[in-house]
Design brief:
By secondary structure, the protein is α+β, with helices and mostly antiparallel strands. The protein has a single domain, classed as Amidase signature (AS) domain (Amidase signature (AS) enzymes, Alpha-Beta Complex), CATH 3.90.1300. It has helices at residues 9-17, 23-36, 48-61, 104-111, 154-161, 178-184, 218-228, 275-290, 305-327, 334-344, 348-371, 408-414, 445-459, and strands at 43-46, 73-77, 115-120, 132-133, 137-138, 140-141, 144-148, 167-172, 187-190, 210-215, 260-263, 294-297, 374-378, 394-395, 398-399, 420-427, 433-439.
Length: 469
């Protein structure tokens, strides 16, 4: 079988199903990879004994169609509860916390045969797109160890890129699936709200945050989505739209021919983007032209999106952590404390106006995707930045007002209420990964994955691996 860690999740699942390799062998090789790549600091809690025990149990049981993730080692984001396994939320307050239950989608992964090998690093309470906290420190980018792996699902993206897990879960409020996917040359999908049931959410009526799948290829992401993206009777807003799989021919080309494509290199001037990111993505857009798509520069209206996002996020943070900030202020870093306190400055009118603005943006997106099949845009405004930074303070010469400002390529798309993913698009001359954000109409998740699969097959960037020292 060669080097097992270089196989994709779908390739490994086929090999496991054919008994060409055992689950114990697969887990052992991935544990060795975690040890070799310890400097990356992606997997912050590892249960080697538990993973090997579960692998042996699965080998005795044998593969079946009812276990689509049979024998696959997976990483779980350290903000998602795992029964019997430490879950810190990246917070010193919860450094020794061990839940007694799994989050719904984690339970679904286990029930599908996945082997939870450990937890992936996050920023404090998953706030921000740089995975560093006072419990575990910073996650390094496998392609450039002196750079950030992104966040908040940065540990997940880095673990995938470093071949330490085959699949990983993540979550996305303002880009936490898309940002680290772009930084680490992997695929991260923010599904339409409700496709992955927000079973643990305190508020089902503000569709900002969703869990989602991450993998090294589009096929891997779709495999995980097939497990976690199912209805849940206890979560009334859960509505996994199961559209037909978008097929392509053997070369993966037919999916792009004749497409109506909107290309937004800087969202019509609404979002600053660094030139090295734009240069890589211009070549990505050219692929669509070469394959017969009808490409034109166009962007949905994002007027007020960034401001409304910041307000709604601040209100959620204050409701979630305001009391704790008052009683134990040392539990929060300065950026998160600022974000919580910002929520206290908002009035009921502010929040209603922000929700009205999001409603307007969502209606505008529906009209926009009546004219276009897919939107191509940056997933992130910058390339991976130095690991010592808190966040980029300028983008394309424009000062960033706070730690969320540089994330506008993703936060503004969040406000449209549509599925969006980052797929590998190439590298800068310095060897830094850049992801292409692909966006489509609400509920068109599988069609979007099909288009991304066609693009991925043409470019081959997903096959490139970092050199782990």
């Amino acid at each position: 079988m060669g080097n097992l860690v270089e196989l994709t999740a779908t390739e490994l699942r086929r090999a496991l199903g054919a008994r060409e390799v055992s689950a114990v062998e697969v887990v052992t090789e991935h544990l060795n990879s975690i040890e070799r790549g310890a400097r990356v600091n992606a997997m912050v809690t590892v249960d080697a004994a538990g993973a090997l025990s579960r692998a042996a149990e699965l080998d005795r049981q044998g593969p079946s169609a009812e276990l689509p993730l049979f024998g696959l080692p997976v990483g779980i984001k350290d903000t998602h509860d795992t029964a019997g396994m430490r879950t810190t939320y990246g917070s010193i307050r919860h450094a020794d916390h061990v839940p007694d239950h799994d989050a719904l989608h984690v339970r679904r992964m286990r029930d599908a045969g996945a082997i939870v090998i450990g937890k992936t690093n996050v920023p404090e309470y998953a706030a921000g797109s740089h995975s560093v906290n006072r419990v575990f420190g910073a996650t390094r980018n496998p392609y450039a160890p002196d750079r950030s792996a992104g966040g908040s699902s940065g540990g997940a993206a880095a673990a995938l890129a470093a071949r330490q897990v085959t699949l990983a879960d993540g979550s996305d409020m303002g880009g936490s699936l898309r940002n680290p996917a772009s930084f680490c040359n992997i695929v991260g999908l923010r599904p339409s709200y409700g496709v992955v049931p927000p079973a643990e959410a305190n508020n089902l009526l503000t569709p900002l945050t969703t869990a989602g799948p991450m993998g090294r290829t589009v096929d891997d992401v779709e495999l995980l989505l097939s497990v976690i993206g199912r209805a849940d009777a206890r979560t009334p807003v859960a509505d996994p739209t199961r559209l037909a799989r978008f097929e392509t021919d053997d070369r993966g080309l037919r999916g792009l021919r004749g497409l109506r494509v909107a290309w937004a290199p800087n969202f019509g001037g609404q979002v600053p983007v660094e030139s090295d990111v734009r240069d890589v993505l211009a070549r990505a857009a050219a692929v669509f032209v070469e394959q017969g798509a009808h490409v034109e520069e166009a962007s949905p209206d994002l007027n007020g999106a960034a401001e409304a996002f910041v307000q709604l996020r601040a209100a959620e943070f204050e409701a979630e952590w305001g009391d704790t900030l008052d009683s134990d202020p040392e539990d929060f870093n300065d950026r998160l404390a600022w974000n919580i306190r910002l929520g206290r400055t908002l009035t009921a009118r502010d929040l209603m106006r922000a929700q009205e603005r999001q409603s307007t943006l969502m209606r505008g997106a529906a009209r926009f995707f009546g004219d276009y099949d897919v939107l191509l845009a940056p997933a992130v405004t910058v390339t991976p930045f130095p690991i010592e930074w808190d966040y980029p303070e300028t983008v394309a010469g424009e000062p960033q007002q706070h730690y969320l400002d540089w994330m506008r390529a993703a936060t503004t798309v969040t406000m449209l209420g549509v599925p969006a993913l980052s797929v590998p698009a190439g590298f800068t001359p310095e060897g830094l990964p850049v992801g292409l954000q692909m966006v489509s109409a609400h509920g068109s998740d599988h069609r979007l994955l099909g288009l991304a699969r066609a693009y991925e097959a043409i470019t081959g960037f997903a096959k490139l691996a970092p050199a782990i020292e």
